[in-house]
Amino acid sequence: METNLAMQSAVPGIVRDPARHLRSRDRIGLLRAMMLARTTEQRARTLVGREHDAEPAARWHREPIGAGAAAALRPSDRLIAPGRYVAAHLGRQGSPSVGASSSAADLVPVSVGVAFAVRARGSGDVVLTLVDEGAMACVRWSESLTLATAGRLPLVLVVERDRTTSPGAAVTSSGQALLGEAVDAEDPEAVLVAVRAAVDRARTGRGPALVACVTARAVAGPPPWRRGTEGVEATPPERDPIELYARRLVRGGMPRADVESTLRAAEDEVVAWQP
Amino acid sequence: MAAVNVTKINQREAITEALRFEMGRDPSVICVEATGFRSPVLEGIDQLFGTGRIVALDPAERTVVGMAVGMALEGSRPICEVGAADLPSRGLDQLAEAAELHKREGIAVPIVIRVPCGPSMEGTHDPDGPERWLLSMPGLSVVAPASAADAKGLLVSAIRSPGPVCFLEQVDLYEETGPVPEGAHEVPIGEARTVREGTRATVVAHGSTVEPALKAVDELDAEIELLDLRTLAPLDAETIVESVCRTGKSLLVEETALFSAVARLVTATVWDGAFERLDAPVRRVSLAGAAAEGGDRTAARVAAVTEACNELLAY
To answer: Using CA atoms, how far apart are residues A232 and B198, in angstroms rounded to an integer?
Structure first.
């Protein structure tokens, strides 16, 4: 999805309030990507007989992260992300993405390698990778960032961070001179704007950037393979990022019918798919 | 058939020749360095092809394999080096990642990881070999040349392969010379070589065990067939089974003290494909610690294989 932000100057800072430049089509695109991800995961669970697994609410924050991050990219940019960021992969609409069956920590050095090659080609493309904060806790992270910073690689790292594990902590950059910004993970527009600024920085040769998407994980509890069939209680509706964003669009003047038809169309598209 | 010019060079030179040939043929082939030290095999490469063909990542010892994967995803064919003793901490997980991407997602990941290994390596030597880590990764090919010609041919094939390949370089064999075809020379991955034909038993060897095995069977002159595996993954099961079905007896020659991953694979292959034709159990001889009074290691290794062959023939 090519947002209107793509039409802006490549020099960040000139656009004072980037979110104002989002068109209705951009916003609908974000909502659609989130709903596609939600329905895809639900459908996948049904196909493998795990439709009663109620844990997914704890993962809903990945939908705005993925949708917002993917929307900040040009079609020729690279997305490298684990499969859990379904919204990012689906939001690319035909552009290549890699890493759906990989772990986040393994993808960090891969992303740096891709960024090296992209820079050598001189195409002006950017590499974006989505990871969780677990990927930051290993030597590969710091070694990769050292090389990316030294080489001023066109790399953007979007890190999912849990507010409860580091309350009030500023975004760290592993000791590297890395531009970092923290945003609310459940707001796809905030993610889009922050990632877009980071992508612009990386594209103009000023080196890699980091965006931390901060969330409070909705549900604590044992992983699915340790639970019985009772599952875990879902997040209350007011914390559902799709619900929140849909209401926000309607409050902002978008016709309710447009919002509802977008959600229905995304659902129908996934349901219609046959393995 | 046109005559092929042959020169006599050692294995290190053969590896360098393969690198130069492929880098001259394909501009996407690059060498990736991560330790700050230039491998002797890469000597002269930057003078020939320019510094752009050698990517120096320093320090990147723990991430070089992952970065090579990234470069491969963008159309390069990177070749990097990770010592056998460093594999568990500096590349195994990323190798698994490369193999997964290739096998599970069907993505071309044309990387070559040169793995210097062997008893003579400086520093911590892993007596059980890197094979035990590498042979459990579907999607990863593993080659182990024994001769200079095979070193060149297998490295060429590895570079041209669409998937990740580990190229096991036995440092003990670096100075071993042999005839090597000039120019284009490719040895297919997945094909064993019948070094010596025979009818009474099959000896299976690879890498640094081929030479002592060959000397032993030559001295015995007892119609013993010798197979050089050349590729450890995928194993050439067809050649092994066909040979053992003919001879009825098999002996595995290994460097490792313990039953290695290669031995397990070959044994299972023989049991699965040739059980009813066996005249003796599958035997194994380890060359680890083979030594003689006076220190002639070579003679001791040959003697160990000779003894094992005699026992097998007498069974």
So the answer is: 67
pLDDT tens column, B180-195:
999 889 999 999 999 9
Chosen from B30, B67, B69 to mutate, greatest number of chain A CBs within 10 A: B67
Helices first, then strands: H and E counts in chain A: 8, 6
Q: What is the DSSP string of B155-189?
A: HHHHHH-SS-EEEEEEGGGTT-EEEEE-S-----T
CA A149/CA A165 separation, integer angstroms: 27
d(C-alpha B289, C-alpha B302), whole Å: 13
For B77, the 3-state DSSP assignment is strand
Residue B127 CB neighbours (<10 A): 12
Of A100, A198, A98, A215, the C-alpha closest to A154 is A198
* A:13-72 residues touching chain B, CB 8 A cutoff: none
How far is B102 from chain A, CA to nearest CA, in Å?
Answer: 11
pLDDT tens-digit readout, A187-241: 999 999 999 999 999 999 988 998 989 886 544 455 555 555 555 555 555 578 9
> How do beta strands B29-33 and A78-80 pair?
unpaired
Q: Select from A77, A106, A110, A157 the residue whose CB has the most chain B CBs within 10 Å, as the one to mutate to test that interface.
A: A110
Q: Give residue B104's identity as a one-letter amino acid code.
A: R
Total CB pairs under 8 A between chain A and B: 89
Can you give the pLDDT at residue A176?
A: 54
